Amino acid sequence: MSRLVLVANRVPNPNDRGATAGGLAVALKDAVARRDAMWFGWSGSTAEATATTPEIETRGRLTYATLDLGREDYRRYYQGFANGSLWPTLHYRLGLSQFDRADYAGYRKVNAAFGQALAPLLRRDDLVWVHDFHLFPLGAELRRLGVGQRLGFFLHVPFPPAGLFCAMPRGAELVADLAAYDVIGVQTEEDAVNLRAALVAIGQKSAAARVAAFPVGIDAEGFARTAAKAASGIETARFRQSLVGRTLVLGVDRLDYTKGLPQRFCGFAQLLARFQQHRQRVTYLQVAPVSRGDVAQYRSLRRELDEWVGRINGQHADPDWMPLRYMTRAVARPTLAGFMRLARVGLVTPLRDGMNLVAKEYVAAQDPADPGVLVLSRFAGAVAQLPGALLVNPLDPDEIAEALDTALDMGREERILRWRSMEAGVREHSAHAWCQDFMAALEGDGPTAIAA
Fold first, then answer.
1. N or C: which end of the chain has fewer CB within 10 A?
2. What confidence tier does 297 reach under pLDDT thresholds 50, 70, 90?
3. Which CATH superfamily groups domain 220-427?
4. Pick the catalytic residue: 91, 353, 429, 432?
């Protein structure tokens, strides 16, 4: 069996297990479980200059090959272009995109450095699977170095309409780079349609034919077991006791402007103002670990959310009731799984999301005999697999409030029917199925792509 080489901006820490492992590592666990594999990418550390030779560490059949980034390269590649230009553009927020030619040059420089360091490590029959927007040009860099192995690329975030993406300076160049890959994966068919159109617009019809949707999933059975166990654990018991019988609404997101948190907080405020029967009867916990805290837009978002929390609790709280609880530190996955099982409502309202695995985890965590209700943004990629969710436009706080009211008043019979339809989708579109489907395409006998 060919070795699988996984390439990502950030390589998982070899010592991370279970509760501390990152989302990508968890999703790809199945892909590396049955074959020799290597993770390649940034170590997470910075130095005076970007390393040219990777540090190698082997754990059984799994090898980790990592590069430290130079501080200036990190600033240009990661903070500047990847997060300042690409991230907002890919999430349909072109107005927030900040383009700088030096940042773009730094982005391409790091991709070239990755290619130079990775190419000598590759075996003749390796399969190379590159992940996410940080590494659009890597396939083309590898082809220029003579790499002929099959290359796959998967985009974990949305891909917007072609006209929007190519309005970003150098957008067409990045689309052209994707022609170097043999398989180009995205989350949804809408993303696939958009990316195919972008490739066709620049004359890459053959590359457009290699674009397909592979929806990312979770290990539903494993997460359900974790949630059931955590529900009877000490931390969940303490949290349940603190609610004093009140109904729990739960949100779990990274602190990011794509997640629609200000609009969500406003929606909860509207629930308390318009549907006063829920006063004193509901508590909303929002877990939002700080993300990219060194970027100005994220610091501004954090201030805005702090103001919302103060405003909502200041206007609506009673001496014995705090309606909104807000945390910006990370919570271990098993603990969150227990909280999800406890929550009557899962509130997942991103402005735009490639998939959103939190929505699927919430469904998997539920007690089949007494499940909660998922309130979900219609702009999350997970919508297609979750037909029982209450869908909302995340830009309309009143619609969020109305959906929360419906969810909080929903009877058990309807909740069970809705949950069953979603649980079936979560199990069918699992992490195992995602890995299996993408790997089957990558292992195909099609011709090797030629760099644009």
1. N
2. confident
3. Glycogen Phosphorylase B; (3.40.50.2000)
4. 353
